Amino acid sequence: MRKNAWDAVLNLLRDLKVAHPSRFRNKVFLCYGDFRQIPPVMPKAGRDQVVRNTVRCSSSWPAFDHVRLQQVYRQGDDAEYAAFLDRVGDGSEPAADIPGAERGSIFLPHCKVIHEESEALGFCFPNLNDPRQCAESKVLAATNSLVDVYNSKVLHTLVHTYRSHSLWRYSSDSIDVDPHGHIDPHMSADFMHMQQPPGVPPHQMQLVVGALYELMRNFSAPDRLMNHTPVVLTEVHDHHVVVESLEGAAFLLPRICFRWVIASGATTMTRRQYPLRPAYAATYNGCQGTTLRRVVFDARRSPFSHGHLYVALSRVRHRDHIRVLVPPDQVHECGLASTKNIVWPELLLQDAGATAATGPRVLGKRKVLRKPAGAKRRK
To answer: Rg for the chain (alpha carbons), in Å?
Structure first.
């Protein structure tokens, strides 16, 4: 969580306590999370700037007691693999002694290796024409471009092997605000169509009936139609599509507007497109918080930020449910694959330089923060 969002929540609770003292007196504020996971994404920001914008650097941080949960639930049936994940997340897994390897590389002794993308898709999606079963598995990759490659391969297989009905829909793109004339008024439409910022659907979208997609915006909390929610595309019409949740409820989705800035923030562009993207592959950030039945970790492109490797390896319950995709020359004489593990010690809970004066009480795996009941209101 970003520091400003954290502080906004605490300030709201303080205001409620002042406005309604009888209702909000002596209340305990309890929250949980995992500092081994990926920090908030900040485009074009360096390591120091990212760290300064986490809750660890909030002025309210020393007012909390820090404890750790004792029981491991996700990997409860594979204690050895859970211990390995703890070492990966803490950065204590010994570095691999490999000539010419990237600094910080480690071996992956508990993960079986595959070499081809076809093997990866076959392992993750043995029944590709069953979208609800596919929703329990994912291919994890470092970049959006790699994710798009996997999703395109799956849609191509559905169309040409399973004969699924496929349609193409194209967005309407426009320049909204250009007060300083940074954009050429005769700029071609091709330039706008080529823009593909994160979190925005492409200009050219392939819609395959019966395929698995995920939403790209929040629509309805009561209906559980939120961002990243998996849905099955059932119908495609001229001005809307029909999707089904995994529970079987049907919903109509129109095209909506996505806005973002270009030209160094001086100009705003709008794309009107269906808020859908294929959900067979995801980046490490996109899979946080999920438990998956099968995972393929594409290690051809090494993790490049704190928590990437820990998140990718910890989505499954057992070591037999994950495969590592690497080229043959990345498998060493010992038969193990290796990849880079990046851990920023200043973000971890046991970092003594950023904890409260009393120090954290280390009890187990994750962290829980509890606001002391008698803590004074910060002015």
So the answer is: 23
Beta-strand relationship, 367-370 and 137-141: unpaired
Distance CA 63, CA 65 (A): 7
**Closest to 134 in 3D by CA, of 285, 293, 248:** 293
Its sign, for the CA torsion 287, 291, 297, 303, is positive
Task: Report which of residues 373 and 156 the model is more confident about.
Answer: 156
Q: How far apart are the first and last CA of the chain?
A: 23
Burial call 267-277: b when 16+ CB within 10 Å, e when fewer: bbbbbebbbbb
Report DSSP state, residue 68.
Answer: E
Percent of the chain with pLDDT strictly greater than 70 = 88
Question: 169 has which bridge partners?
Answer: 205
Predicted TM-score (pTM) of the model is: 0.85
Largest CA distance in the chain: 68
Residue tagged 């999707």 (tokens) = 243
Lowest mean pLDDT among 152-156, 291-295, 362-366: 362-366
* Contact present, 203 and 273 (Cβ < 8 Å): yes
Measured distance CA(132)–CA(119) in Å, rounded: 21
- Is residue 213 over pLDDT 70? yes
The type of residue at 25 is R
Give Cα 247 distance to the centre of its chain: 23
CA-CA distance, 89 to 36, in Å (whole number)? 5
The whole-angstrom separation of Cα 346 and Cα 352 is 9
